[in-house]
Design a protein that fits this description.
This protein is an alpha/beta fold and 471 residues long. It contains 18 helices and 16 strands.
Length: 471
């Protein structure tokens, strides 16, 4: 009897030990992972800071090697370093791989055609471990180094990052865009390449947020789309293309869905300045699009979107959408939102057209778009000057309906927008919304013109959306 009790106690203790075993995180990378140039790297490298952020339930190991390359034929291949074998032997539960910066050097560029092949070998080695770890690919941070023969941001952006994103697509792996996070952080890279302790903290915080975010890994929107779908890669994510009532539609799937299945509805200019969309995909948002160009937000466009909305809801997406519109996309967003105020979580628009009399008609201080004027008239069945003068189908005419939704609105505004005059669009819209108690924030871009849209580092946009959706 005593022997039986003793055995049961051993089994019980073993089960408890396994239940509370810390999650092992392996950080694979080069000198940025190692913590080069950081005064107290053992305390302030991003793996060290990640350990403090995660706490005792995790064990984070730094397997960074200075000057190392992903390429097997590079000038210092990571796979030839003892840290690689140590990382494999640690049998990690999570693996972050941040390699590619040194592969952009002139001496290594000749081998870049082999980059994906070599990366697949590393991925396969970790996938074969007994722990079957969660593998996350990290895009290299932005380099501000001027020497084109050394580490080159042009090569990182033009060759390295597309390779990593393609691998994320073909190997079904998560990918985190650290490059955009540092687009406005040159001051944190003293030598233009290596982040200081504060910069390392930005990386650590992003990785900690990823590991701590709740996920719905079972949700698969594919099962809910009852149409013939063609799949392609959208910066490493699966994009489902299909046709609904003669309108081309797209639904981009995150690697896993955030709780509640949030989504962003891009109104126009698919894929243009995608950094905010990519950042939200990383966080479990779906990104969707229904092509109603050039209907200028008329009844036909709204009806098409209503049908698309029903498809997405039946497929399992959240009741409320994050509406996103650049330039004339602002008309589509707000005209639909005015009719469907209870279906909108928040609105983000960018140098938005909010008065069609301003653009494309050229009223006020905006430029006239001759080629779009006739399309606009046809869409709204305008044949006389009297009809044109009495037109009230723009968002600027629907403020009362818009504010009834009580959703927050973020407007990015180029103060020197030469195409869509701020005074006749965003600034007047802001004034009218505030007069009726609406929730609007205008983020100014001093000296900027109509292009480019968005922000190189999209985090002000992303943070606004995350605060609204509250994952």
């Amino acid at each position: 009897m005593k022997r039986t009790v003793f055995i049961l106690l051993i089994v019980l203790c073993s089960s408890i030990a396994q239940a509370v075993a810390p999650i092992k995180v392996a950080c694979i990378g080069n000198s940025i992972t190692y913590g080069a140039r950081i005064v107290d790297r053992e305390h302030d490298s991003y793996p060290a800071q990640l350990q403090r952020m995660l706490g005792d339930n995790y064990v984070v190991s730094n397997f960074g090697v200075n000057s190392s390359t992903l390429l097997h034929k590079g000038n210092k291949p990571y796979i030839n370093q003892p840290q690689y074998q140590q990382a494999l032997q640690s049998n990690p539960d999570v693996v972050f791989i941040k390699l590619g910066t040194n592969d952009s050097k002139l001496v290594n560029r000749v081998y870049l055609d082999e980059y994906e092949h070599d990366y697949k070998e590393m991925i396969a080695a970790f996938e074969a471990l007994p722990s079957h770890p969660r593998i996350v690919l990290l895009l290299p941070i932005k380099s501000f180094h001027p020497d084109s023969n050394s580490i080159s941001d042009k090569v990182i952006v033009g060759q390295i990052i597309p390779h990593i994103q393609h691998l994320a697509y073909t190997e079904h792996l998560e990918v985190i865009d650290l490059h955009s996070l540092f687009a406005d952080k040159e001051s944190l890279l003293a030598d233009k390449i290596h982040p200081n302790a504060e910069g390392a903290g930005i990386i650590a915080k992003r990785l900690a947020d990823l590991l701590q975010q709740k996920r719905d890994v079972r949700f698969d929107i594919d099962k809910g789309i009852k149409y013939s779908v063609k799949q392609s890669s959208f910066y490493g994510y699966v994009c489902n293309d299909f046709t609904l009532n003669n309108h081309d539609c797209k639904v981009v799937q995150p690697k896993w869905s955030a709780i509640g299945h949030p989504w962003v509805w891009r109104a126009r200019f698919w894929g243009h300045e995608p950094q905010a969309d990519i950042s939200l995909l990383e966080r479990g948002f779906h990104i969707v699009y229904c092509d109603v160009i050039e209907l200028f937000g008329n009844d036909e466009a709204i009806n098409a979107w209503n049908g698309f909305y029903k498809v997405l809801r039946s497929a399992g997406l959240n009741k409320k959408a994050v509406m996103e519109g650049m330039s004339r996309g602002g008309v589509y967003v707000y005209n639909w939102a005015a009719v469907n105020p209870d279906k909108v979580a928040c609105v983000y628009v960018d140098n938005a057209v909010l008065d069609l009399k301003s653009w494309p008609l050229g009223g006020g201080k905006s430029q006239k778009s001759v080629k779009d004027v006739e399309k606009f008239k046809a869409d709204y069945h305008i044949t006389t000057d009297e009809q044109l003068n009495n037109f009230h189908g723009s968002p600027i005419d629907k403020i009362g309906q818009i504010v009834k939704g009580k959703y927050p609105m973020l407007h990015l505004l180029a103060d020197n927008d030469e195409a869509v005059a701020p005074a006749d669009n965003t600034l007047l819209f802001e004034q009218k919304v505030k007069a009726l108690g609406g929730n609007i924030t205008v983020l100014h871009k001093p000296g900027a013109k109509h292009h480019p849209h968005s922000l190189p580092n999209p985090m002000p946009i992303v943070d606004f959306i995350l605060k609204t959706v509250q994952l």
